[in-house]
Design goal:
globular; 19% strand; alpha/beta; binds alpha-D-glucopyranose; 736 residues; Immunoglobulin-like; 6-stranded mixed sheet; Rossmann fold
Length: 736
């Protein structure tokens, strides 16, 4: 072998790398993203740009293999990373490495009223998406809770735009710190599942800007979301995925959004309007996002061959294609091509702890007469657990947010584990809901039971007879019409004859605790027969542990309702004034801005449980509110303070809520609107001074004539309370 002596002349130490070996700008992550976008774009053919814009499998779109620009992989959903599906099918692929941590549903997150929990949630679910190599998480959803019948309310953050705005921002930031794009959905006005693929929503600009847009705006302008999902429905006659009002005028021009707009699966219906006013990435076309659809139709997607042909024929200029391609390339440089991204983690004990903490902080103690709760385990011999939801798998079902969880602790198992061997925990079915053993293509449980409801109730009452405590676990279950995508509920009441079981149990045992698992309000005709009622949401993998720890008092409940529980359906604006679910694909939100507590306040309606309501195992006293001035200039701020004291015997957290009412406005305004809140922890006897800073922005309404936010001079009242209906103090001031 010949040895070659290589001598480098001292004078030529500075190695001059020939120009052709210099790394291209788009691959150089020391370069600014926009330069990399332009450089990458300049290297693409029209065909390569087109393939960036549409799906090529159920949940992925092409990159540019020639240039080393990776594919994009999307994954549902808001509560955990969906199991892998077969390339071009909805059915699961049966992988054995994709069982995720199931986090609580987003109504539970909203019920924590704790932005730190939202940050923890986003970080954790973002780590799971990152580990699974998904660069777009199809969540969170922030559609406003307009009707208690909407099948997907469990995926969203309640009825109040301010609360949803405060909770969505940290979630988005948490996800994106993993180099995964949050895709905030469904933009916009997708507030029901009935007729979701066609209904044309008519809503006045005040309700649009004051109620339905704020959470999306916060996600974009504060959360810096990298992706938004266009909704299925129509607004002003245009499908939301090809809508100049929503996507051009509001999202891009008013909010300065520079991310990608992804269609909902099957949300794109037309080529040219999508080119000029529509999404950047088209998915699920020819399907309804849930069931089967046309096979491998990817080349016939609107943004595929049809778009390319319009360019090749000169009918549409390539700059229209470049606009969309830039947005998709920017997504790549923010995610797949950012080499500083963390590596993520999946279904870890840390994520289990996060799921449990969020669940514990979101559980809402609605009622607790005679202080039945917390359960005094040390004095307890027997606990009777009743109800199908005590044993039913809840992480599966509900539509696209369904999960293949690594584990799920049921309420019954959680209660058994926590009670320990000294306490006998019995179980009786109580009622039969859905006996089928499969959901979302997953084999779940065989819950078949042929007994009559009388037999089931008799058995439950026998079990309850001599128990120290009876815990009924019922509610809804994410089957069709029971909190599920694609199908709204048909009534406010509980299904499967649960009311009769609860009333029967109330007669045989005074220590009855009713635990409702749901993502929606339900009617409670038995509420005065039952001492304790708990709203326990869909809590995910750690459900049973979180619930048991709250019932046993290890955790003092601190959740508050993110939406109103109306006593009856017509106590909700959408049903009293709106024309839910619409007729002939047309629906007008006639209740306007008066959604939720805004409606019940306006009409002096007493809800079953009000927005912002939630009890604790301790008590909190509110002192006198003070305000730093009786007058305020539009350019100034006011400071409002109020002392809050824990007057009970145990540590607890209280969510102090601040609402503002405009006493004399030129337009109709709600009695009061949530404008601030703070969750504080107080030791027994401890008092804290809670203070809020008010600015003119908190006083504004959207003037739809001038198309801008306006604060009119005049008198305003600040209400501070433990819920929207439990005002503990108020102070007035005047805006000059
Ligand atoms: C579904 C849902 C959407 C989901 C998407 C992908 O139809 O509307 O929320 O992310 O399609 O499954």
């Amino acid at each position: 072998m010949k040895t070659i002596l290589c001598v480098i002349g001292l004078t030529s130490l500075t190695l001059s790398i020939p120009a052709q070996n210099k790394i291209p700008v788009y691959l150089d992550d020391t370069q600014p993203v926009e330069l990399r976008v332009e450089d990458a774009l300049s290297r693409l053919t029209a065909e390569e740009k087109i393939q960036l814009l549409h799906a090529r499998s159920k949940f992925s779109s092409a990159g540019v293999a020639r240039l080393g620009i990776p594919e994009n992989w999307m994954s549902d959903g808001p509560h955990g990373i969906r199991a892998e599906v077969i390339w071009d099918e909805w059915n699961q692929a049966g992988w054995t490495n994709d069982s995720c941590m199931a986090f609580p549903a987003l109504t539970c997150l909203a019920a924590t009223w704790n932005p730190e929990m939202a940050a923890l949630y986003g970080k954790s679910i973002g780590e799971e998406a990152r580990y699974r190599n998904k660069n777009v998480l199809l969540g969170p959803g922030v559609n406003i809770y307009r009707t208690p019948l909407n099948g997907r309310n469990f995926e969203y953050m309640g009825e109040d735009p301010y609360l949803a705005s405060c909770m969505v921002v940290p979630y988005v930031q948490g996800v994106q710190q993993n180099g995964v794009a949050a895709c905030v959905k469904h933009f916009a006005l997708n507030n029901q599942e009935i007729d979701r693929n066609a209904v044309n929503v008519t809503v006045d600009d005040r309700a649009l800007y004051e109620i339905y847009l704020p959470a999306f705006k916060a996600a974009v302008t504060e959360g810096k979301a990298w992706a938004i999902m266009g909704a299925y429905n129509r607004y002003k006659g245009q499908f939301c995925c090809q809508n100049e009002y929503l996507l051009d005028n509001i999202l891009r021009k008013e909010w300065g959004f520079d991310g990608v707009v992804v269609s909902d699966w099957g949300g794109v219906h037309e080529t040219e309007s999508t080119v000029y006013h529509g999404v950047d990435m088209e998915f699920g076309t020819h399907t309804d996002g849930l069931a089967s659809g046309a096979k491998n139709a990817y080349d016939s997607y609107h943004l595929a061959a049809p778009f390319l042909n319009l360019i090749k024929s000169g009918k549409i200029e390539e700059k229209e294609l470049d606009k969309k391609a830039r947005n998709v390339l920017r997504l790549a440089f923010r995610t797949t091509m950012d080499r500083q991204r963390p590596f993520g983690s999946f279904a870890t004990p840390e994520h289990g702890l996060a799921a449990r903490k969020i669940a514990e902080e979101g559980i809402v103690l609605l009622q607790n007469k005679n202080n039945v709760l917390p359960i005094r385990l040390q004095d307890t011999k027997k606990i009777a657990v009743i109800g199908e939801n005590a044993v039913k798998v809840m992480t599966v079902g509900g539509g696209s947010s369904s999960l293949k969880a690594k584990y799920e602790v049921s309420p019954l198992d959680g209660i058994k584990n926590r009670a320990g061997v000294a306490v006998e925990v019995t179980y009786a079915r109580g009622y039969v809901g859905e006996a089928i053993g499969t959901q979302d293509g997953l084999k779940t449980q065989n819950l078949s039971d042929n007994r009559s409801s009388d037999e089931l109730i008799a058995e439950a009452c026998r079990a309850a007879q001599d128990a120290d405590y009876v815990i009924f676990v019922g509610g809804l279950n994410k089957h069709g019409y029971q909190d599920s995508e694609g199908k709204d509920r048909k009534e406010l009441g509980l299904p499967y004859g649960q009311d009769a079981v609860i009333s029967a149990l109330a007669k045989v045992n005074k220590n009855l605790v009713v635990v409702i698992l749901s993502g929606n309000a339900v009617a409670m005709p038995w509420v005065n027969e039952v001492p304790a009622v708990v709203e326990s949401w869909y809590l995910g993998s750690e459900a049973g542990n979180a619930l048991a720890r709250v019932l046993a008092g290890d955790v003092n409940p601190s959740g508050k309702l993110p939406f109103t529980f109306p006593a009856k359906l017509t106590d909700a604006g959408a049903h009293a004034a709106g024309d839910y679910p619409g007729n002939n694909h047309e629906e007008t939100y006639r209740e306007g801005i008066f959604v939720g507590y805004r409606w019940t306040d306006k009409n002096n309606i007493k809800p079953l449980f009000p927005f912002g309501h939630g009890l604790s195992y301790t008590q909190f006293a509110y002192g006198k509110a003070t305000v730093s001035g009786k007058h305020m200039q539009a350019t100034e701020t006011l400071t409002v303070t109020i002392p809050v004291k824990n007057t009970g015997e145990r540590k607890g957290k209280e969510i102090v809520q601040l609402y503002i009412g405009d006493e004399k406005a030129s337009v109709a305004r709600p009695v009061k609107e949530l404008k601030a809140f703070e969750k504080i922890e107080l030791a027994p006897g401890e008092e804290k001074i809670v203070s809020f800073i008010i600015s003119a922005d908190d006083l504004k309404f959207f003037d739809d004539k001038r198309h801008e936010w306006v604060a009119e001079p005049g008198k305003f009242t600040i209400y501070i309370g433990a819920s929207s209906a439990d005002v503990r103090a108020s102070v007035a001031f005047e805006l000059k």
